[in-house]
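Q&A log
Question type: sequence-to-structure
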Amino acid sequence: MVDEIRVHVIPVLLGGGTPLFATLDSAITLERTEVLVTPAVTHLGFRVVR
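Response status: OK
Response body:
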């Protein structure tokens, strides 16, 4: 069970990448709780809505 997801996005391309949520059986509703943008990284926070 996951209550919160934090994603940190940086502008670097490392190849094909790995899908983070490819194995989910159904859609999950998320509520955005945080967005912090800096020149080097964007921090995103989401709460799982139950």
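Response note: The longest strand covers residues 30-37.
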